[in-house]
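Following up on my earlier thread - several people asked me to post the actual chain instead of describing it. Fair enough. Here it is, all 630 residues.
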Amino acid sequence: MSPRIPLSTRSADRTRALSSFALAAVLLIGLAAVRAEDRDNCLYCHQFPGLSRLDPNDQRIRLFYVDPAYTHAQRGPHARLSCTDCHERSEVAVVPHLPVTPVNCTRECHLVSPTAPERRFSHDNIGRMLEMSVHSPDSLRKLEFTGGPLLKPGQSMCLYCHDEPVFSDASPLVPGPAHASDRLFDRCDVCHLTQVPLDTRYFLRHVSSRLAPARPTLEMAQVCAVCHSDPKVLADRQMPDAVASYVRSFHGKAALLGDHSTAGCVSCHVRAGENAHLMLGPGDPRSSVHPDHVADSCRSTVCHPGADKSLANTAVHLDLPTARGTIDFTLAALFILLTLVSFGPSSVIVLLELAQLVVNRHHHAKAYIHTVLDRILQHRDGRRRLQRFTRLQRVQHWTLSFLFTLLVLTGFPLKFADQAWSAAIINGFGGLHAARTVHHWAGVALIVGFSLHLAHILAGVIGRSRERSAEGRALGLWGAFNRLPVAITPEDGRRGLQLVAYLLGLRKDRPMFGRFTVTEKFEYFGVMWGTTVLGVTGILLWLVEYSSHWVTGRVFNLATIIHTYEAFLALIHVGILHIYNVILAPTVFPLSRATVTGDTPEHKLADEHGEFVLQVARDLNIPLEADNRE
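Reply from S.P.:
Thanks for posting it. Predicted structure:
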């Protein structure tokens, strides 16, 4: 009698058999799927990322990994080609095979379709275009790079610019297959499913990809930089570093900050209706960068439609030669000098003020100033008259602070576009286009507010000009202007020198100031100057399509320099000096009350604004102890 097999053992055997069958089915189905998309079955080995070998000739690791997703998901125009459509079949007939001959990208390919006759295709026409361009094969063969050859002998020179082509994302132009409904393809399949066989989904991806740029603007510049930023290539060809100067320009900085719509290398160096393989030099009359055609690129419908031809004189590559840029460099030097002259003395005063605290030197106003101040405070209108900032002025100040902050956050990232924090700020605003929109309209609001402020001051000056002086004569416009609390007079210059002398220990008493100190007056007129300069240059650069009809392209170079350096000057003054004076200074920390309530602490009024206290007393007819003033 045969031994009885336990039921659990039979069940286990049956389970193992079913598992083996399922595993084999999965492998066979998977292999069939791979073979359906990979007719030569090359991915059987090349799908593994670790497939590599050590090259004994140069001791470098050679990788032979091919991303299966490229073929399976049909991510590019080569995805439906067999490997042997480009590689010699005889060289890969035996597996494992020896290294194959480098592919010649201009060779003829045979495109085979199961439902259509064989078609012949090649990139030969591109080879002919290159022969006529500045990138002719002969010139590419002579390239010598700083780090040695980039290609191995026999490799296609197409690899200088190209890698495996991938379909570009054209979703902003046309809906991609991933977002297209089946109904869209159903309409196409009425004819193209059987009568005129065509893979409509793949066709849509291919065509829509060709409608989008082959590479993002920054990536294209990086491709060009392989040659056009290599020191040895530049020295051999006596060329400037065009990519570096492009990156310093507005277009280059926009590309660094992720703007794909900004003008790139191909935008200017390839004429409409042609392609990048037929790129001609500036000496060729057919070239897009020939002096007669540069303006056509600038004035195209995708760049600056309606602009004047003079816009072409703007420095797209911001690398101004000394011979042509004398005015430009002189202007930049003058602004640097202005920054030193204006920021230097103010910062010295701040440092000397801090030194007084370090050495424990304190100044106290004379007793009679405190006496007068007490009398003013006892007057029913005294506290209001001692306010140094009115409600309207406080509203204007905080509005200016808000707009200034917006302008800095949306403008300065362009100056430092290669820094990670710049991209983070711009992305926080929703991208460069949104940040520029905020910058432009914040600038408009600043100009409108500044204009209203000037109108308010002018109305006050005109009204005060009819008043009579102590001698009985009308003040006139100039006299009324000099009576403004912020007007800078020769007396302010004298008291400024006295302040420096006091801070240096050369004078015992601190000079008395009026409603505003010398430093506050200079800050105020700095804002007036900066808003005017930044407003005018900003409008010129923003509305270039219109302003180019009134000024030449060279003026835009100057406007760019002025706008940049003046913005930098404003930032360091506000970000360092003003922030210290109204927030960080020990006498006002954590914030000057005058910016919120308009009031100034009594001790600060007596110590720094004694002349203002005395003037308020005169206006209120409060008697002064003249015999105690000395």
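Strands lie at 52-55, 60-63, 108-113, 116-122. That should answer part of your original question.
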